[in-house]
Amino acid sequence: MLAAFADPVFDSQRNFRELLQAMARPMQPRELPLLPPSPAPIAPAAMAVLLTLCDTTTAVWLQQPNEEAAQHLRFHTGTRLVEKPAEADFALISEPASMPPLEAFAHGDMRYPDRSASLIVQVAGFRTDAGARFTGPGIRDSAQLSIDGLPQRFWQQRAAMAALLPLGIDVYFVSANHVAALPRTTRTLES
Amino acid sequence: MDSSPHLARAQWMSLLAQAEPAELAAAMEAFALPADITWLRPPQTGLYMLRGRVGGTGPQFNLGEITVTRCSVQVGTRIGHAWVRGGHTRHAELAAYADALLQDNEQRPRLSERVLEPLRLALQARREAASRKAAASKVEFFTVVRGE
What are A93-109's pLDDT values in tens digits? Predict the structure, then answer.
């Protein structure tokens, strides 16, 4: 088994600060200060997010579950692993090309829109000088970000879900040591 | 020690946890921590809620909180865990390391002899001393015999 954060309290607080900031400024990649060791297929940055956000009160779904990753998560976070995407509070997508449709995840209900899933998607890379433009709360004018390795149908499914607001799904994209957040309130601008 | 491996492990973990930190440190002097071990969970101190039942059968109630320090360490392929009462981080580290070594069939006899046995004797001596002290203060109520 592998170790997690060297100092669980302060290290997860430092990462939590960055995740908050990433959600507050959607689609602007930020550097995660601490990357813990992680078993395959979980990337270190995704593990940093999981260790920061998951505990005994959350349910996690792994797209590519294996015994080592499951044991590692259970030991270090005490989290519950679930088999169905719909039961997950956090879902780790390690291979976006074959990810389930967004409708498969919980998007909350009208009384409790917060009872929705947050996805952690491991992508190939970010480029801030290309790709689609986004707007919404937390973005002055517009933000541009191209995400490598994300299937086109993700954007179609997300656009279809936009009508459900305040219901929806929040996404953290991670690549190498960077994280970019896509909360449900962010809209894609038609070019 | 019992032949069942799980019970045996529970017994030595209990013995390591109940040892006085100084006793454990003295017993473990011959087993220095190598530099290349992995601390899966460095010692962390927290609170556990102790629960009890009146007479062992009544409804559960919260007795109070207790300070516990836990620690997990990997030595080679073996993982040692420890939960010890109090906030003594070194105690938790040594107990976890001893638990990892004790799972190794080759190391176990040497550790049983040089660590577990002294700890067991010390624990027994402490229990007997406490029991003697309590017995010395026993009061016989000769005067309140009733009836007859």
Answer: 999 999 999 999 999 99
Asked whether residue A112 is assigned to any structural domain, the reply reads no
Is 0.95 exceeded by the ipTM?
no
Chain B residues with CB within 8 Å of chain A CB: 38-42, 44, 72, 74, 79
Verify whether the Cβ–Cβ distance B40 to A7 is below 8 Å.
Answer: no
C-alpha closest to that of A78 among A101, A99, A60, A103: A60
Answer whether residue A106 is part of any domain: no
A3 lies in a domain?
Answer: no
Q: Which of A3, A7, A76 sits opposite B38 (nearest CB)?
A: A3
Residue type, A80: R
Q: How many domains does chain A have?
A: 1
Whether residue A1 lies inside any domain: the answer is: no
Of residues B40, B42, B44, nearest to A1 (C-beta): B40
- Give the pTM: 0.83
| Strands A187-189 vs A178-182: parallel, antiparallel or unpaired | unpaired
Give contacts of A11 with chain B, Cβ < 8 Å: none
d(CA B100, CA B76): 9
Domain range for A14: 8-99+118-189
Q: What is the CATH number of the domain that holds A78?
A: 3.40.50.11310
- Residue B1 has what pLDDT? 46
Q: Say what the pLDDT of residue A60 is.
A: 96
Q: B108 phi and psi, to 5 degrees?
A: -60, -45
